[in-house]
């Protein structure tokens, strides 16, 4: 069916809005706020850095509802069932097993270490570390998975390409602090989390899986 003239501008406006949202989501979270604020310079710097990320989350949710005029279900906020929670737990455990293999087998074999970065993380108060772990699960799953995957698939027509693009940005965003060897860590976690989201399309479940990984790594050690 040939599209009417009135339909073309409407689709164009929708595409522009989607591109704007992707710029906000992927572009926003990719900015090196931690370096600009020198986040480890003090408690105030760390809190300021976290407030920026929460502000980005709020801005994107506002964008979806008020600018795109779409429901939050369009970015994965769907009611999870018991199966989603169970699979989320299993996904978190799977990621931990894979990362444990990398940290304790691959890294030593390659003489790689993240002790310097981990030493800085260990100086963060425990209560703030808890908030950071929650924020990371919420913000990264919303921005990289819920929004980016959904909108990139709409633009490209390919769920594989959408997952690959969002996962690539997610992986590279961890390089600025952790270093290039962390690509192996972030890439492994990113691939599994992306596949899980593409399978279940439930952002709450993805957030839980992400939280399990970061909580085990930074709160239970």
Coarse structural class: mainly alpha
Strand-residue proportion: under 5%
Tally of individual domains: 1
Major sheet details: none
Keywords: Membrane, Transmembrane, Transmembrane helix
Domain CAAX prenyl protease 2/Lysostaphin resistance protein A-like: 127-215
Protein name: CAAX prenyl protease 2/Lysostaphin resistance protein A-like domain-containing protein
Organism: Dyella nitratireducens
Describe it.
- With 221 residues, the protein is mainly alpha-helical.
- The protein has one domain (7-218).
- Helix content is 79%, strand content 0%.
- The chain is built from ten helices and no strands.
- Helix 1 packs antiparallel against helix 6, helix 3 runs parallel beside helix 6 and helix 7 runs antiparallel to helix 9 (183-200).
- The termini are far apart.
- It holds the Pfam family Rce1-like.
- It comes from Dyella nitratireducens.
- Residues 127-215 form the CAAX prenyl protease 2/Lysostaphin resistance protein A-like domain.
